[in-house]
Design brief:
The structure is a single chain. Helix content is about 35%, strand content about 20%. The two termini are about 30 Å apart. It contains 12 helices and 21 strands. By secondary structure, it is an alpha+beta fold. Among the domains are: about 120 residues, Adenine-n6-DNA-methyltransferase TaqI, Chain A, domain 2 (Alpha-Beta Complex); about 120 residues, DNA methylase specificity domains (Adenine-n6-DNA-methyltransferase TaqI, Chain A, domain 2), CATH 3.90.220.20. The protein has a 4-stranded antiparallel sheet. The radius of gyration is 26 Å and the shape is elongated. A hairpin with a 3-residue loop joins β10 and β11. α4 runs antiparallel to α11.
């Protein structure tokens, strides 16, 4: 530890200020982030605090620590931090994580972090230049992780937009029907009018390098290549199950186009997981990674659909996880791959577009059993159309996997560096010479 570090208390460095009550913040309207005890909870039009700033959860089972580079609002279940001396606020954010300030508990029935309990804790405090270097090192890693996450959102948004255009709105079929002078069903007339108003009777693909998430604008559309456009029919047929669908397409079920590997799943108790540590192989549950172990039962690209517990999101869509490489999955998630010419990514985009509440059973423990999942209606296009769709989205998901893996590696590097930098064990001048290309 450098000679510039000195012993002090949190009460000498900061004041924890109460947030304020706020109404109507849970939507997506507003310019400024709203933070609660467990992180971002919504948006509002007026900030409470000018950024940058640090937020500390005050009440609840989990009290997180957040950093905002921009102005923000804090509701009354959290604190915002006011420095009493000159401090780099991003260094302060990492220092509070390192010292586990969010885990301080006053012992009351409702878990809480009190100001008095925080203020008496001691820490070693470096001078401002060293704070700034530490914040820059760790902040650069977090900034890259966040950039990767946003790029993944864009890539998946492009794939979702194309899925909706081809398999929900039937844009290529509408365009072909308009070009051929064929009738448009009343249910699709509004969409057809919008397509016709573009002045280009060809469906379009979003550009691979688009930053718009795949939402093409009038005058900026590129037509489908001829060899893809001719794969789509130029008329519609009426079905009892799904109404008007492209002529020649079939109404099937999810089970017709998916392979299920549930019989290969193996649940592990907490003790069994402990016996398989340390490890880097993710152990998946219904909605997320629950642990990391040193063995695997799956190796490849799969789609996980939550089977029981938290199975449905607020919009009615199921909890899905897109996984690859070596993994272990317990018996709370269905393990699936695409079949009959459909990719696993195609299945994921389909599931993300579905409201599955009608297929959920159980009053206390919600469940989507395999039979109900397989019975979800699925509109099956021709093999050639499905393969053309796969050829388009495969590069997007390949890039998504690379960016996600890069983010995981960067997170590991940050988690290694953070305690050593914040304790003074690692001199910051040494970090600038570390070879980190393997983590980029």
């Amino acid at each position: 530890m450098g000679s510039e570090w000195r012993k002090t208390t949190w009460g000498d460095l900061i004041s924890l200020e109460y947030g304020k009550a706020l109404r109507d913040y849970k939507g997506d309207k507003g310019k400024y982030r709203v933070f609660g005890s467990n992180g971002p909870v919504g948006w509002t039009d007026k900030p409470l605090v000018e950024g940058p700033g640090v937020i500390l959860g005050r009440k609840g089972a989990y009290r997180g620590i957040e950093y905002s580079p921009d102005p923000f609002f804090v509701i009354d279940t959290a604190y915002f931090v006011k420095p009493k001396t000159e401090i780099d606020l991003r260094w302060l954010y990492y220092a509070m994580i390192h010292h586990r300030i969010g885990e301080i508990n006053d012992g009351s029935p409702i878990p809480s972090t009190t100001r008095a309990a925080v203020y008496v804790r001691e820490l070693m405090f470096p001078d401002l230049p060293e704070q700034q270097v530490i914040a820059h090192i760790l902040g650069s890693l977090d900034d890259k992780i966040e950039l990767n996450r946003k790029m993944n959102e864009t890539l998946e948004g492009m794939a979702q937009a194309l899925f909706k255009s081809w398999f929900v709105d039937f844009d290529p079929v509408i365009d072909n029907a308009l070009a051929a002078g064929n009738p448009i069903p009343d249910e699709l007339a509004e969409r057809a009018a919008m397509r016709e108003a573009l002045g280009d009777l060809s469906a379009c693909l979003p550009e691979h390098n688009s930053q718009s998430g795949g939402h093409a604008q009038a005058g900026k559309r590129k037509p489908l290549p001829e060899h893809i456009r001719t794969l789509f029919p130029d008329s519609f047929a009426h079905t009892e199950e799904m109404g008007w669908i492209p002529k020649g397409w079939e109404v099937g079920c999810f089970g017709d186009v998916s392979k299920c590997f549930d019989n290969k799943r193996i649940p592990l108790s907490k003790n069994q997981r402990e016996q398989k540590k340390p490890g880097t192989i993710p152990y998946y549950g219904a909605t997320s990674v629950m642990d990391y172990i040193n063995e695997w039962i799956f190796d490849g690209i799969y789609l996980l659909v939550g089977e029981d517990g938290s199975v449905v999101r607020e919009d009615g869509s199921p909890f899905v996880q897109y996984i690859w490489d070596k993994t272990w999955v317990n018996n709370h998630a269905h393990v699936l791959q695409g079949d009959q010419g459909l990719t696993t990514e195609h299945l994921m985009l389909f599931m993300q577009s579905q409201n599955v509440r009608a297929y959920v059973t159980g009053a206390v423990q919600l469940k989507i059993n395999q039979k109900n999942m397989n019975s979800i209606p699925f509109l099956i296009a021709s093999y050639d159309i499905n393969r053309a769709f796969a050829d388009w989205i495969d590069p997007l998901f390949e890039q998504k996997r690379k960016l996600t893996d890069s983010g995981h590696n960067l997170s590991k590097l940050r988690d290694v560096l953070l305690p050593r930098l914040l304790s003074g064990e690692l001199v910051v001048s040494d970090v600038t010479h570390l070879e980190v290309e393997g983590f980029a």
